[in-house]
Design a protein that fits this description.
Elements lengths: L1 E9 L14 E4 L3 E9 L4 H5 L2 E5 L3 E5 L3 E3 L2 E9 L8 H11 L5 E16 L5 E14 L2 E13 L7 H11 L5 E2 L3 H6 L20 H25 L3 H20 L6 H34 L8 H25 L3 H15 L12 H20 L7 H25 L1 H36 L4 H29 L9
Antiparallel strand pairs: 1-7, 1-10, 1-11, 2-8, 3-4, 3-8, 4-5, 5-7, 6-7, 8-9, 9-10
Amino acid sequence: MLERELRLNAPTEFRLPDLSAGGLDAVAAARRFLDAVYFDTQDLRLARWGCSLRHRTNEGWTVKLPPVVDRELKQRLEVRFEGRWDQIPPEAEALVRSYARRAPLEPIARLRTVRNPVLLIDGLGRRVAEIIDDDVSTYLGQGPAGRFREIEIELAQGTDEEILQHLVASLREAGAGTVTRMSKLARALGTPALRDPDVTPVEPGDDPTVGEVIRAAFARSVWRFIIYMPGVHLGDDPEALHRARVATRRLRSDLRTFGDLLDKGWASSLRDELRWLGGALGTVRDVDVLTLRLDETSRWLLETDDYPLRIMMTALHAEREIRRRALLESLDQDRYFELLDRMVDAANDPLLSPSVDRASRDALLNLARGPFKNLSKTVRELPDEPADPYLHRIRIRAKRVRYAAEAVAPVVGEKAVRFAKAAARLQDALGELQDAVVAHAWLMEAAQDHPAVAFTAGQMAGFELARAEEARRSWQAEWEGLSRRKLRRWM
């Protein structure tokens, strides 16, 4: 469930005003008494990431994942599970493990709330929003720790966000305080919960050291990986899996790019483990890519092809579930948690070589030149009519060029950003070829193995063959754009 909410501080004597306006009716709902126990690590890793895990009496378990903030409105994913308060459901624990890692989860606070809700109903009887007036008493350890008041606005799905302006103005006029992004739990825990999370992506300053550039590059990838892993566990968002996998690939690429400035044994060992993790994520991602592609290609089919298409899609969904179960087993291994700890250490304190203190801006540029030289050499050595595996190798090297340029962009500036975008276009053109080739091969195999889908699969294979041929013709234009001397003069 995706929450859209906004909170305001309020004094203890605050009274809700009449919120009926613009054709809306304000209906007071029954008062509720809530009793929630929150779980976290001793150093509050979940709270510092903006995440929470709680058990509320008569409601069960709730995981709230870190919010995505758009202006003042906060949207966050909330997932609920059944279970008794002293046994964290494994599925709930899995969602927060990327934040907690191997640290044990234990009760850290108890919040007792007197809740007075008011529903806003439109003329058709639909719920537009809910105003929640909470009087919260907090308990830390064995005794009471404090009390505060909070007013929360929750918009129903489909409600226009413009209504927020009216509601906030009315509440502020009645004496409510400022809008706050701080959760109830953070208010209860105080300063320790407001510290930065274990990994914080920080852009280097105007004149960064080489070490600062390396740390910033590593931190960006590790941060992205951690925040997308809950979506990987949930399993219903292919984009979360894609972004988590990209984060592992980018970190591996950066370890390669900065290799001469890192402890070689440390960097090599970490890259090997990231290859294992990326491979585990990739087995599921490959099916997602194929499914999305066949769904797109199916738009060219007739209605008579619906039945064989469903057969093929059902087979893909079944294959994905098998691979997803294998992935989740990998993510429950000590090997994964050890790697996650190492990734966090790399983001905060990478093991640099002694020479890094003497490294200069020119040293970074040399590191970015290397991947481009390898790409140029690979392109020059292509046969006149290169087979697809050769072109796939070009794609891999283009990706390394892009990541290297993005890694040194804090030092080089906009010129490196433009160069990275050109490398991304080459990568995308060759990615289209690779995806078409893979889809064509799968469809041809499906046509041979299942006579009921042979004709439909054959049609779709023909479409993919045409798309692959177009990609083979178009990639060279992208390469010519990337290799222009003007674009890479900064090197």
